[in-house]
Amino acid sequence: MSTVWPTEHFNHSSTNRSCPVEEETLRLPLAVLYSLIFLFGLAGNLLALWVFLFLHSRRNSVRVFLINMTLADLVLLACLPFRVLYHAQGNVWSLGPHMCKAVGNLFYMNMYVSITLMGLISLDRYLKIIGVKGSQRGCGQRWLRGSRWSLVTCVLLWSGSLVMVVPMIALVERNEETGKCFQYKQRKHARGKAYFNLFLVAVFWLVFVVLLVSYGRIARRLLHASRDKPDLPNATRYARTAKKSFVVLLLFTICFVPYHSFRGFYVWSQLRDVSCETQRIMDLTNEVMLLFSALNSCLDPVMYFMLSGSVRKATIQALSQFLSWQQEPAVTNSSTTEFRRTSVSHASTAAVLTTSRGSLGLITPNLRSKPDDPESCHQITPLTN
Fold it and tell me: All domains of the chain, ordered by start, with CATH?
């Protein structure tokens, strides 16, 4: 046995050298695009994290999920400078194989953490808006109403992700090529990792179905409310809110569906003897699809601000106060008093922003169709509070 593995390793390395799969023409475009995603994504997610932690004061499960999703996006973005450096240096990796596997696996781990959190948000909204049949109050069990269950879920999600990703980093695949990273690899001698990648693809499609069902039924409830009860004060907003809820599905589909539609074929080719040309096609397609997936970390903050009126108003007010403070610094007692008065006003506004004025939080208790309807909900809360 001891003489077999070195021979296989040598043959596979020789095959890699005789079949360069990376496309040279993509090198600079990838470096530029990943740099732009990193810069805009970093600015947007840091701003979003600041809003969620310090301005968006409502303590609920969605806020917990959004904070964790922002953290996942930031960790994913932290992996992008390594990809930029790799492509900028002519697709040459100089940080060693362990660092390559750490960066690559952390990138994928946080991408799937973000995907899972999107599914949990949609499930949380579904249970609190549509409700669970057989529940006395029609909005699910009491433990779903607070934020404790989301905290526990996030801890389990991060813990499970780390437990799964550490072996992936430590696993010796015997297919590393010196000076290369992020390239197409054969996994005939690392089938465990290939099968794990297929498992992640299955997780994505499960989350995608949950998103379709959850937001589809939520949108239908809102559209029915606007049509059946046009006299309600917010009836005209229900239809707009229902349409905006599909923006979440649209962004999710654009960023992740192309990559995961192709991913199964990519992993299948890694487990088979395929031609050099097929390997090049797989590597090229995977790089383009992965770029769309990385783009999601840049678009998530846009989704927060566009769909949540409370987040948008809190951000705009905070930025306007910051700019006015920079232009007119408080140097006198009167200006200090005015600054304190503004701070109190901002605190009051932050509390008000958690009401139903958000773009996706427009539903009032009047939406109940019948007092004893088991599927009616006391209040439809924001999709992204």
Answer: 23-308+358-367 (1.20.1070.10)
Task: Kindly write down the DSSP assignment for every residue of 301-344, as one continuous string.
Answer: HHHHHHH-HHHHHHHHHHHHHHHHHHHS---SHHHHHHHHHHHH
pTM of the model as a whole: 0.78
Q: Is the pLDDT of residue 243 over 90?
A: no
pLDDT tens-digit readout, 6-62:
333 334 444 445 677 777 788 899 999 999 999 999 999 999 998 888 876 667 788
